[in-house]
Amino acid sequence: xxxxxxxxxxxxxxxxxxxxxxxxxxxxxxxxxxxxxxxxxxxxxxxxxxxxxxxxxxxxxxxxxxxxxxxxxxxxxxxxxxxxxxxxxxxxxxxxxxxxxxxxxxxxxxxxxxxxxxxxxxxxxxxxxxxxxxxxxxxxxxxxxxxxxxxxxxxxxxxxxxxxxxxxxxxxxxxxxxxxxxxxxxxxxxxxxxxxxxxxxxxxxxxxxxxxxxxxxxxxxxxxxxxxxxxxxxxxxxxxxxxxxxxxxxxxxxxxxxxxxxxxxxxxxxxxxxxxxxxxxxxxxxxxxxxxxxxxxxxxxxxxxxxxxxxxxxxxxxxxxxxxxxxxxxxxxxxxxxxxxxxxxxxxxxxxxxxxxxxxxxxxxx
Length: 366
What we know:
By secondary structure, the protein is mainly beta. It has 2 domains: 39-225, no CATH class; 231-366, no CATH class. It contains 1 helix and 22 strands. It has one helix spanning 18-39, and strands spanning 43-47, 50-52, 58-60, 63-66, 72-75, 79-81, 99-113, 116-129, 140-146, 176-177, 188-190, 195-197, 215-217, 223-225, 237-238, 242-243, 249-253, 261-269, 274-275, 283-289, 292-297, 303-312. Strands 8-7-9-12-11-10 form a 6-stranded mixed sheet, with no helix packed on it. Strands 15, 16, 18, 19 and 22 form a 5-stranded antiparallel sheet that branches. A 3-stranded antiparallel sheet has the order 1-4-5, with no helix packed on it. A hairpin with a 2-residue loop joins β20 (283-289) and β21 (292-297). It starts with 17 loop residues before the first helix and ends in a 54-residue tail after the last strand. 19% of the residues are buried.
């Protein structure tokens, strides 16, 4: 049995009025808007890939976006644009802000009847704006244009100097293209004048996506985003396995702010098996202060080594507030007689994020 729903019911021989057609159109528009709302407003659906052109120009591929009001912004053909970076600062040189490429809905009217337009179609505009979103007109950001670190103002348009190294690449993009290097996947492109950034967060993934966190090209050659990766990123602190004497404790300087963490403490037995059996009873951890963790154990002899890993609560991949410092380990405490030589061993020092240590510096405290 069909469930009743809003519609216009036509009868044989009836006179169709403006109200009938308006109701039919309103129901259709409401259904389309509801489907768009399920997909999400304010993002690119597909396309709008930006490539660097010649003499500071850029090329924008066709695409579709839904603005913040749910209106479709369809770019049916490739567009070309030469962005102009306004220069701020004093003196002979200044700095240019980031430009945001924005696709906006542009209602086009026509076929006037008694001065009233009777045909309204969805058009588009592409603009380079200096202000970041959100926008009052519901515009959708789909790219950022990053200029060189400094520009010299000159009268009239002029080529910009080469892109300097060191511009940040978003973590969810997979490829950087500079000069003649061809990208393996659309992500970040660069010309001699500017750097172009497009992020997956600005795109709605298709229903069938794999959560790879990368861009891809679909069967229609449109740029699509495959969705953000699922699950946890790696821990921001990993003590590695530490030998701890019976009934002993060890203080670790992990360098992460706060004490709101997902913590994993595990032990390794004599036979090499890794387990969390005994956690909280025969070994445990404490977080007594910011940046500090303490592992303690009883005199139970089953376990030989212990490992603590920490994930700060927040969005996946959230970076710590400030650098994660390496953990210095100068070896066990020792007393030596004055005038005698002795060795110091810092090989137990480690990086919480697994990076290689390249430099050691010793400081005499007393």
